[in-house]
């Protein structure tokens, strides 16, 4: 019978050099990219006081739509198709004015959308609010 010859233990060693190279490359990559990130913040300083003490707010053109779908421009009854003409006439005298559409709860959606689209199409600043006398 032949005896097997014992050879020396061949321990498999893991070469750590390539792994360390990858770790250092990743570290350098994250350091370089992190320096370019800029956090955006809100400037909390109040604006400087204006030189003009008597600044008046921009006038508002009030467009009201009632429950019966009647339209008023600054408390004057008008047709929903003539609102843009009335608003344009007022804005000719007061170019900085904006439009506030005050809508009752039961007003038709189509009328409101028509008014909103006309104002936006003509670059008139507009906002919508619910009528105060509407009940919840």
Give a verbal description of the structure.
The protein has 136 residues and is an alpha/beta fold. It has a domain at 60-130: Nucleotidyltransferase, domain 5, CATH 3.30.420.270. It is built from three helices and five strands. The protein has helices at 17-34, 83-93, 109-121, and strands at residues 60-65, 71-73, 76-78, 98-103, 126-130. Strands 3-2-1-4-5 form a five-stranded mixed β-sheet, with helices on one face. Strand 4, helix 3 (109-121) and strand 5 form a beta-alpha-beta unit. The longest helix is centred in the first third of the chain and has 18 residues, at 17-34. The chain is elongated. The N and C termini lie far apart (104 Å).
Q: What is the fold's blueprint, element by element?
A:
Blueprint (H helix, E strand, L loop, with lengths): L16 H18 L25 E6 L5 E3 L2 E3 L4 H11 L4 E6 L5 H13 L4 E5 L6
Parallel strand pairs: 1-4, 4-5
Antiparallel strand pairs: 1-2, 2-3
